[in-house]
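> example.struct
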């Protein structure tokens, strides 16, 4: 990972956490840190109108999202400043319903962190009751710029330019192509 990579400063971590939590989906759902300023503490989400299904309970589709975001934020302080992590696998299981008005808190732990891969586990609780659990695998890749770019997103392509593509060839490297993107 490089001898001179160093660790992220608290300000760099705070900037990345703000970037993640200010994404429109996360912001609109009301996802917040359990302990302000501490990304390792997990997340908090109240089950309200935007987060419940027609049955009046937490929408099951939010469980993988919450596990994924919680795991990323938990991993962030562990990564060297020149590294970023992208999701390559994710599983989640909903164990019991969370009623409207319930508050879900999430936590994650780093099960294994290597040079090119990371494995994490996450839990969702309502009070002291375990309501969901999940696991995720991440590729540890080089970070660049002020904010790391995700593979294949429209926003990242706009930042990179219309004639360059990002593709993950090995779990530890990004390669750039100067060929125009195919329109077919």
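> example.seq
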């Amino acid at each position: 990972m490089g001898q001179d990579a160093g660790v992220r400063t608290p300000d760099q971590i705070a900037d990345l956490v703000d970037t993640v939590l200010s994404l429109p989906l996360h912001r609109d759902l009301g996802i917040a840190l359990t302990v302000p300023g501490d990304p390792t503490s997990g997340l908090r989400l109240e089950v309200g109108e935007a987060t419940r299904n027609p049955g009046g309970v937490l929408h099951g589709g939010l469980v993988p999202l919450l596990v994924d975001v919680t795991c990323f934020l938990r991993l962030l302080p562990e990564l060297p400043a020149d590294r970023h992590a992208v999701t390559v696998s994710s599983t989640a299981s909903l164990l019991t319903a969370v009623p409207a008005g319930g508050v879900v808190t999430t936590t994650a732990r780093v099960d294994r962190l290597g040079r090119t891969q990371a494995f994490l586990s996450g839990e969702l609780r309502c009070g002291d009751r375990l309501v969901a659990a999940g696991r995720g695998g991440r590729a540890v890749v080089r970070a660049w710029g002020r904010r790391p770019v995700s593979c294949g997103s429209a926003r990242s392509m706009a930042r990179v330019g219309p004639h360059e593509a990002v593709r993950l060839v090995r779990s530890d490297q990004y390669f750039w192509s100067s060929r125009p993107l195919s329109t077919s």
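> remarks
DSSP finds four helices and eight strands in the chain.
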